[in-house]
Queue: 4 jobs
Job 1
Amino acid sequence: MGEYKGVMTFAEQEDGKIHPVSYELLGKGRDIADKLGVKLSCVLLGFQMKNEVNELIYHGADKIFFYDHPSLKEFDTIRYKQNIVNLVKEEKPEIFLLGATHLGRSLGPRIAVAVKTGLTADCIDLKVDEEGNLIQIRPAFSGNILAHIKTKTRPQMSTVRYKVMEKRERDPTRKGEIIMKDAEVVENSGTNILKKEKAGEVNITEADIIVSGGRGLKKPDDFKILHELADLLGGVVGSSRPLVDEGWIGREHQVGFSGNTVKPKLYFACGISGSSQHLAGMRDSDIIVAINTDPSAPIFKVADYGIVGDLYEVVPKLVDVIGKNKNKVLS
Amino acid sequence: MIHNSGEAANERPNIIVLLKQVPDIEEVKFDTEKGTLDRSSAKAEPNPFDLNALEAGVQIKEKLGGTITVVSMGPPQAESALRDALARGADRAILLTDKKFGGADTLATSYTLASAIKKLGNFDLIICGEKTVDGDTGQVGPEVAEHLGIPHVAYVSEIKKCDKEGFVTVSQMGEYRYLTELKSFGLITVTKDINEPRLPSLRDKLKARKSEIEIWSVDDLTNGADRNKFGIMGSPTSVYKITIPSVEGRRGKIFRGTPDEATKKFVEELEKILKV
């Protein structure tokens, strides 16, 4: 295990633009590398994205391994895996981190199997113990418990949840090394992207303000009450699982364990009792506001502000009061 | 479609569905003092995402014919999840059960499942749920694909086309929706959007009750597989501590009274916090 040294992160890109989780990984990776007294490197695969490479250095990387090749422009699991596996075998990092995005969670497992190591999914914190082992902390059982996990093989691999780690402030004076790598070209990867289009739906995971409804709503039409509040605040509408299952609103609005994990600045839970399934998807919100008629509803236990009352009375009242004071409230 | 022996296509595809029995996540009780969970507090059910995987398989079979084999790893009680799968349209069910499979992380689990798939041979498509509700890693599917050296497409929300040429899937990754062709055999993981699993009929349930569930142990897999890679022995990751997430730091201010009063007080607070 002694021959494995350094921290390496994967930089995810789409259309030549680096996904913000990549900078968060560098932020956390930098802390760990400093604690261990080792270098922080980063691997990027793409095509013609020279300027973006420097950004990775400005955000904390010491060394970038850049695979610049047309076959790597679009994400292809097998092509990406093959090149990263080659690099990991050459460089032998002791820690390798990816974002727990769709892409990271599709790619990470294949790399882990290929280099015969363990992979811990969806970590929300990473620490280092006295012996320099990585402690990977992840929610389990709908976020009811936190599991602290260690890996006995190297590299220690984790996917890390988006919007949990802090990225470092961009420092354009930071210096680092860019190593251009020759890509291994996999001719036939078994899959072929025929078309790619913007999903176009509300991207609830990116929203700063979310107004969610639950079983307290009486009919599908009543989502418009929540829309009014969301529109006023410049937010989007979310939903708990039962209403999505009933077909009242699209799954892209679903907040919770089997839906989307969100971390907005402000989260309104209207008529949501707060099942563990729902809490798992929103408990990391900055400020949680609960509106519910039942004062013993579990949602109040995680709320910063709770209003005991009927959403049909409270929400229109909120729209009214916030509307009148809009400049004051949203200054 | 070309199956894994590289020979000409199976006109009627052999489909493998991976399925796990899980505790009903809403019912599991936790001892917040000790940080342990009581699995016996909840009834077991098939992982909901795996039912979507099975339904996807059944729909392909309805179109093209072929067979569906369900493979599960778990304790002997997981037999009930497999009976459920048979009632829902699977033709054959295999339960990988052995104390030596116990304590497996995703690497060992995927190795075990892949070893069973290799033993089965001749398949065209493997379908899994995107994740399980208890483990919530979403890793086992792609890991099985890597062990087998076959391509995979994750987070499939629709199968646009399936015929003897292959499959065309719709999957969402980040802000984009991808239309991806799976040229020969491979593995897909499916989301809840792909379908609405049908409920089994009473007749099928009764029939499934009498069907055979094949039980495979370590000895059934070791021809070609390394027994050190099963279970806890083959698991590089381990949980060494469990903690309960703190809800500290929440302000916990509850407003009561008439909606007028409560709302007014809350908006005053909101003004303060949003200004900071």
Note: Residues 204-329 of chain A form a domain with the Rossmann fold fold (CATH 3.40.50.1220).
Job 2
Amino acid sequence: MKRHLLSAADLSRDDAELVLRTAEELRSLADRPIKKLPALRGRTVVNLFFEDSTRTRISFEAAAKRLSADVINFAAKGSSLSKGESLKDTALTLEAMGADAIVVRHAASGAPHRLATAGWTGSSVINAGDGTHEHPTQALLDAFTMWRHLGALDGRRVAIVGDVLHSRVARSNALLLRTLGAEVTLVAPPTLLPVGVDGWNVETSYDVDSVLPKADVVMMLRVQGERMNASYFPTVREYSRRYGLDARRMAQLQDHTIVMHPGPMVRGMEITADVADSSRSVIVEQVTNGVAVRMAVLYLLLGGSEPAGTTERDAA
Amino acid sequence: MPTQPAPPDATAPPDRRIPAPQGRTVLDPRDISRALTRISHEILERNKGATDLVLLGIPTGGVPLARRVAERISAVEGVEVPVGSLDVTMYRDDLRMRPARALLPTDIPPDGIDDKVVVLVDDVLYSGRTIRAALDAMNDVGRPRTVRLAVLVDRGHRDLPIRADFVGKNLPTSLAETVVVRLQEIDGADGVTIAADTISGGTTAGTDTVTDHPGEGR
């Protein structure tokens, strides 16, 4: 593995499978009386969140603490960032404090890459979501959830439905799922598919009803109104009717098909409440799996003298 | 150590294939079987029966050995003995000295280990560091009434004050030698060999996990 996890594309198939297998072992920890392992004792993990987050920050914090790391939470609100400090000065401060890993979320696509490669810090940088670019640990926990339900992902069909344009989850999932051998179809209105999507090695469709019956996994995405600077569809009601997952559409799915959502959900918009609460829905399980997957990533990056399975290619 | 399953020994009869590509065979399959049978009886004698016994194998080699001991105990006593596995990777004292390692399965029997008589089972006892790590790992799982240690081979050279309660074979070795334990469940055949340390790549020198089973994915 490389020293940083910035993109799902940083993971080879071997790396990704190692993370999934490690997460599987770590998941059993939740059933034990003492939910703690000593692997990262004395290591410091900084959660650097420039953008609001509930799930991801808490998930990373729980993961680091269960591995006995010291955790420093750093939210943009209430820090010197709101006084105008730059990313660089923040990074230098964290470096001076001796952080071993920086988990960063930022509204600007590419901020984690800058942090990792500008020479400001010697820490491992883990991308916890940057703008509309990538969210690799979400893709790993999604793949882990699929893998637990469906076994090996080779040839499995995954439909990702919704606001693909603004979704870092969709991009990371597409990259990782292709690495793991799954077939990915992105379903969205033409306005919400990104330019250059033909280079992603995935299929695209505008018609959700033609895709659902063949899918093994349906992943619904939230419409990210906060990132929209223009009108991408006529009305919420029309979007919901054409691209939302309701009980009628759910009835078209194969028996084994699971329904996923990275959260936060807007019930009644992209997914109806009865679908979100149905037995096909693995949305709550995704959150549980998130902790195990993030523990796996932290352990494999920080647990040894260097990341697991380091090759000369990675070191270069 | 071998990275490929060894070719069968051509001179041995088919029912006694000894997979020893290099080195000297010190335990053949029948020796291993007899040693495990004796260990099983010793465990029962010491514990005065199978009451409260839990066998925990240390992956990878210890896990099939623990299962075999459990089979023998249940054949003698007519009761099932809980068997599990205990991964010690995160508790190793050299965790920080090498690249992060893949975890191995930890599988604690459903009734847990609290107030039980836990017998740790491993293939080779060497420095004792793996067993120290196992004691730490167990501390996070529960509080057994007693912990005992069973090993197939004790090759000496302890770094820590640790000893085995049940030993299949005491094997005097020099530090320059490598002990390789091969087991049917993992390597396709049973056998313990000892060789000059030319095939190990030097990665086993400081630990007592002398075998590295290539077939085990996790």
Note: Chain B is about 25% helix and 20% strand.
Job 3
Amino acid sequence: MTQRIDFQTDPSRYRHWRVAYDGEIANLYMDVDEQGGLFPGYELKLNSYDLGVDIELADIVQRMRFEHPEVKVVVLQSGKDRVFCAGANIRMLGGASHAHKVNFCKFTNETRNTFEAAEADSGQKYIAAVKGACAGGGYELALACNYIMLTNDSSSSVALPEVPLLAVLPGTGGLTRVTDKRKVRRDLADVFCSVEEGVRGQRAVDWRLVDEIAPNSKFDEVVQERAREFASASAKPSGLTGIALTPLDRRFAEDGSVTYSTVEVVVEREAGRATLTISGPTDAAPDTVDALQAQGAEAWILRAARELDDAILHLRLNERQIGTLVIQTQGDGAAVLAHEALLLNNRDHWLANEILQYWKRVLKRVDMTSRSLVAIVEHGSCFAGPLAELLWAVDRSYMMLEEFEGDNRPLAAITLSPGNFGTYPMGNDLTRLATRFLGTPEAVEAARARIGEALEAEEAEELGLVTYVLDDIDWEDEVRVFLEERASFSPDAMTGMEANLRFAGPETMETRIFGRLTAWQNWIFQRPNAVGPDGALQRYGTGVRGDYDMERV
Amino acid sequence: MLDLINVSYDTQIPNNVGLSQDKKVLKALEKWHPGYINWWNDLIPQNFQESLVYLRTAVSVDPKGWAKFDYVKMPEYRWGVLLAPQVENRTIPCGEHYGQPAWQEVPGEYRNLLKRLIVIQGDTEPASVEQQRLLALTAPSLYDMRNLFQVNVEEGRHLWAMVYLLHKYFGRDGREEADDLLRRQSGSEEAPRMLGAFNEETPDWLSFFMFTYFTDRDGKMQLESLAQSGFDPLSRTCRFMLTEEAHHMFVGETGVGRTIERTCQVMKENGIDDPYDTGRIRDLGVIDLPLIQKKLNLHYTLSLDLFGQEVSTNAANAFNAGIKGRYMESRLSDDHQLQQDTYTVWDFEDGKAVQKQVPALTAINMRLRDDYTKDAAGGVGRWNKIIEKHGVDFELSLPHEAFHRKIGVFADKHFDPSGQPVSGAEYDAGLPKWLPTHADGDFIQSLMKPCYEPGQYARWIAPPKVGIDNRPGDFEYVKLHMA
């Protein structure tokens, strides 16, 4: 795969989706261009999707929040006759490398979570209006919506046919949302997930698979009526005006390095390492939310989030040999805090809220990144507020202690803000600090007492905010040895170990999707019964069934 | 009216499946039957329900005497459940289970696949009755009206046949599917029939003949492939249905043939040699040959769409599972598994129609469609013979498969009937020559006047050469109830 996958797009480039904005309601049509696959070798028939289709959807969801805050209800529907969505494209999956499949599923999962959470986070409720076949990933799209309507034409159905048809799982949240979100009884869920043709009509309601069925002749009318009801019941203020998400300022260098306005990614392919440096704000924080809105996408705190998000996605998909991500910051911690404070003090303003919610999602994206993550807290760094969260998202952190010879930057310090105590929860619904100090909740309180102080190395170590603090004498060697050692371990074992250690604490639907469901799916994605030359996924479409090894493992 | 309470299923329903002993099926059929009768009664206009129609009723599966003819009111027609006799030691004729004993019970692993095929087949049967429900009002003769009703009741019986299989072999799911077969209606906005072509209405008799010739022939090919099923009850059911289906082809072929015959006669009588002198021909009250070609183009291409995509996973699965064979599977001499074989299909590349080799398994639909085209070409040849006999210089032909398609690689692309790619403007300009226009429809509609006198025929159509059941020319095929 030599082609770089770009996660940036805009409405003028969409090939697979259209949005019709109608005041507080947006009608979102999935109308996949068969010939518009990201890679050659497959056609996106029957509204099936690949990563390219999902990149557009993610862009739409993001723009819906920032550019169209007036929207309260989004109706997700098909632009094609007789099919809602047939799910992920099977030939694409059959031809894709294991790594691509895993990355694809992760990104689609993140996108599903994003529009699912849009109701709670942004007052934008997604409803699915299902007409025609809605199978596999198609039903998973619907499941991530918070209200599902199905036409009662005695042929449209919802289905999860992965197990009988393909010998894989409905892995984009399907199994988990059926039981945890829709709360379908487990035996009925078992039946549902084993029948190819799925369930239609009243039974789909009885089994809790959809919220409502409506007569086919009145379906569109009932859907719009329901959308209007939800919009008028919404607590979200009306008449908001959005900001434009302008194109990112971004340059790629030959050696793989990427330069954004406030994020710099230096790639050292030989060492299997990338260093990601976020620069703090150079301008003072806007005085008011009106000033913030006027800055729009130029506001540092939004820009940094967008650039960090794009950099992480780029590294995940396009730099797969890079096993270690080194995260650094440079700038003034107090300034970072000032920029965050404007948002925290104006949470009831839609844009302030959106930016905070976006930081929450970006930080979750960091949590979910299957690379060894290390934070290097150098002198002159600005791990403060949202950037301090990165310290607890990573697997280890190293912090400079005392003065270094020839280094006249301000001494390394970490600054906590009220945001670190609830604004950016992880997938397990706990803050990163609460997760970090699961056995010593008093440590969270001790940290909270130090909000706003520039905590230098010794204090940070005492509070447990970093792994190691090292002085000038030890620093270079210790950091080098760690990075070299890390690069020598099996990447599989690293991914597994890190994913298990990162998410202490309670399970949520989200952790179950990214943990249990994804792990099982990725296991199945390695097994010959699915992906071997005689496996179901390889044989799909040939007419010949998968040849299964019947041994239970 | 049929006494619904005291149906004696062995006397009222001709069957060779031991219906009266089969408690499970009886119970299901008893529940389903009233819904079916309601469906029928709501469908066909009341005066025809009350009329006595000279119908053929299948009473056994004996090839020598499987049917009897008599006057019957359609709601009292004895829709039977008849399976062709079991072939001893029959084996699965194709796919990965080739050579194993044919299944007498539904194999669990293929239950859903089988059920879906039966439901789709079952869905088309009543659909055509719905599409044709008002045609009797404009029947060109009692003979034709009778043929229409014969086709209708037999489509009804084919629905019964599929419902029997659903009730007998598919438990509760099967019963629900059987109910939904009555719930969906052709052209309904509420619950349309499953296949697009079965939601178009049949507005006139030429359409009806074209439909029975081209679209019922698709049904015949589907039945032929299901008759090769490794699931023996399905195979036996379809084999027997094919004996009735032949009559539908006959109605279509002779209907179009008689229309052509009449047109040619009238042209000759009036000294018209140019078949494109359509104004004069139409003024004489017959349908010009170019318009017949246009109707043919329309119905043939709609029927091609029924065969689905050129490359189809579902068809491949069904063949490999041994659920659905090829046309005349048992007479083919390959390995009947096709795992290494290829087949030539049309594809669309760089704006052109090209032929390509693809794995034979995935091209099962196309193979059946090619067999269909060959089968359909036969009647076209016979129609041309009629034209030739009258010395008219005109030849009907089947259009290229790239023309006017809604499904497959040529869907919504611009090709002329000979298969040449054309620009959008050329296509727009060509359409009135290639497909019936609204004005053509108006003209045909103007000819659709009922002709209810025994032995009399509407001007635009010639009488048949022989009567049904060898009845004389003035036989009263339908005793109309005109209350």
Note: Residues 123 and 235 of chain A are 7 Å apart (CA to CA).
Job 4
Amino acid sequence: MEDATDRIAQPWGDRTPYGRHDTWPARVDTFLKAGVEPGAVERWVQSASILHSDGDAMDIAVADGRMVGVRGRDVDRVNRGRLGPKDLFGWQANASRDRLTRPLVRRDGRLVETDWDTAMDLVAARSRELLEERGPGSIGFYTSGQLFLEEYYTLAVLARAGIGTNHLDGNTRLCTSTAAEALKETFGCDGQPGSYDDFDHADVVALFGHNIAETQPVQWMRLLDRLEGADPPRLLCVDPRPTQVARHAAVHLAPRGGTNVALLNALLHETIRHDRVDRDFIAAHTVGFEELAERVADCTPKWAADICDVPAARIEEAAELVGTTDALVSTVLQGVYQSHQATAAAVQINNLHLIRGMLGRPGAGLLQMNGQPTAQNTRECGANGDLPGFRNWQNDSHVADLAKVWNVEPEKIPHYAPPTHAMQMYRYAEQGSIRMLWISGTNPAVSLPELSRIRSILTQKRLFTVVQDLFLTETAQLADVVLPAATWGEKTGALTNADRTVHLSEKAVEPPGEARPDLDIFLDYARRMDFRDKDGGRLITWDDPESAFEAWKHCSAGRPCDYTGLTYAKLRGTSGIQWPCVESAPEGTARLYADGISWAHPDLCESYGKDLETGASQEVVEYRSLNPDGKAMLKAAAYRPPHDEPDEEYPFQLTTGRTVYHFHTRTKTGRAPQLRDAAPDVWVEISTADADRLGLGEGDLVEVTGRRGALRGRLRVTGIRPGLLFVPFHYGYWDTGNGTGPGPDTPGRAANEATVTDWDPVSKQPLFKTATASLTLVERGDGRPSPAPTTTASAPATVGAAHPTAGGEAAHTTQSPTKFPHGREEGAR
Amino acid sequence: MNGITLTLRTLHRGERRLAHDLMTVAERHRTEHEVHHVATDLAAWSREHVRRVAEVAAHHGVKLGDPPGTSPDGFFATLREEASAAVVHRPEPGLLLLRDLRELHVAAAENSLHWEMLAQAAQASEDSELLGLASACHPRTLRQMRWTNTMIKILSPQILNSL
């Protein structure tokens, strides 16, 4: 065994440097429960992480029927044995004593334990009643980015063809809908163009609103390893916080919130002005260049500098970096997706790659990222406000094809309008037209904006709420029926990460008590509802994960996300295969669009596109005339100021985000001791300049008040952009005295108390980056530090202002450098 | 007064009205967040159209007024927003919303036809300034119409089936 490292104090572990175009070496990270020797492990069970979108492959250690640790899989293309802090420690939450083990139903206002039959009969009876009285539009499903492919697909079939409702979406709406929409706008179809392998070949990596060090720590290890190797890449970081990425960047831009389109238009302006464009690529593969050039003609760095509050010279440097390199990789995440003009901005990054011809070859890659581990599956299975297999709801032949797969009449599948997005579903529930909401694997009472509003919706008596989860979350406490679910390691299923890599995650241990896999719960419901196809046969013909996977393969056949070349056996034999995986590409496909734009033809595309400023849908006739040959579309957008601007009453911009130690609403990571203690409570970040001006300091308890609510946290003074406050979104109320929200003795703790309801009209992704707020002192810190980690973007501006974050012996992890057993990009084209 | 100045006056009035109506709808449907925000954005387009029409009209010897303010009438605006919040849990405002979207669509369609007339007249009289005005503004009017149409398409199935 190698040295043990405290992986709370050193989230990214030790370096294994490598040079450009070399193979990233493997390094096997292992964490076993205290007192468990490696020899005591009876079985290692193949899996991959579900605590972020990276898809880190790992084996679960099992002894005496219990999970006792994890080990990275060195054979896997994604992580090559490495694990991040959440991967290493998060699994311990599975064994928490407060797991839900029996179904609960609300009787006389209180949730009481019951058996599965009673709970499921209640759900089925209410469904039938509503179908009879108010029709399928009265029932909505709100799912997750953390279940498995088989579960989403089953849910999509039962909701769209069983119930026949248009109201099915995932919390992926909050994390990845802009990625999908931006790809649809540019390439006509969803599907991640690039590959993580592009990091090995890149000369410049541009990270737009993507704090990769904390969202995908293992890919950050890869970049750190390249930075220490020969011919290292240069980084461009666009982020208002002093992230680890910013600290390593050649150029760091910290623009004012909500101004991404202005900044990107200036980068495009410079690229075109200096003729740093690939004219042959533009002519062969795109439409719309003239209009784009015209739109950005006046968007000089000077113009953008005033809007973004970034020096024009820095913008010029950034433009030179992305404009002169021969191998550009760009990654995009929530700083773009959850900000004002989300899709319009994300599309401009696609445009940058297209006009520079940076697409479809090693080191020339575009990665519109995901936030959650299985968000890609939510998208492709049609559980996220799209039809399964990236089919086009406006194209009757696509709907007919789907109806054939399901053996139902096309009219049974709602396609008169786009599938309803989550924010609209909550609005329908608010005004009373949705009367039943089934929430699986997510916690909207903490994660949606403007929580006072969300609580008022979920507590309506007329709304029947079903919550399927591992714990009695803030949302579950408000439910009418609570269904105890099995999770990762307790059930089997496939999951696909942000670069289209498919993994199999196998059952390692039994779920606690009567908890059941989400798939079994959906199948049980389908049986009780007796959903039938058009010939009177069972609509859902599968009964376990593998048969569900086979059914999905059939649905994906011939679509961009084609899984037909995959089987469970194949996923067990290898480790990580990128779709499409078909007969002609049995080892998967590293990059989309290596041979030109393939899914933008009017007959094939998933979407005819939308107006980037209003969200209005285009029709097929327009699409066909603009893009008859199915090329990539360069869509221009004008900058518009954010809807919410600071004023005298609310002088700060407020942004929310995550830390490397926690995931989502902390339901799991808050129950893993090392992770819980690394970032035990909410905090508020403020710039040195603002803190000095207001006479505030480290550890002061402050109240952040937005237009719709307030929260309290201890202050951390950092190098964040002046005028901006940051609050992590992980913290809620389950571990406070009050349970579901603020109360007389429980001040606001969730970041979303202070956010407002507004969303990008194109992708319908809510905005979490452009709220405004005021700040008041509640109580002096008097030496008590903020609970914010010191290892990450929340590091104090003054070294030593807070005790360094560490996990001590409890976080000791071994790291064994080893050779990656495959050649680079083995097999994949 | 000739036909060109008549059309400019008509457009000026039509865009002023649309800007005002978009703001009114934004306030009346404060709890329909997307309608509220996008209608507010689209009102800015119409205000700009008003400004540009007035500019060109001045060159034709016609004096036209400024665009309406960003909020048409403060007291009533607040009242509309509060009224919207008061009925947040009721389905009936949905019908009003559909009616309002329809009215916006019709108003934008009227403007669109007048832009068409202006562009045609500009071509026939080889007035490049007029043609420039029409080609700058008309596409946005069409986008306003497409938005109202899209919102009606999305919202009407739920609203009309749940009353």
Note: Residues 69 and 88 of chain B are 27 Å apart (CA to CA).
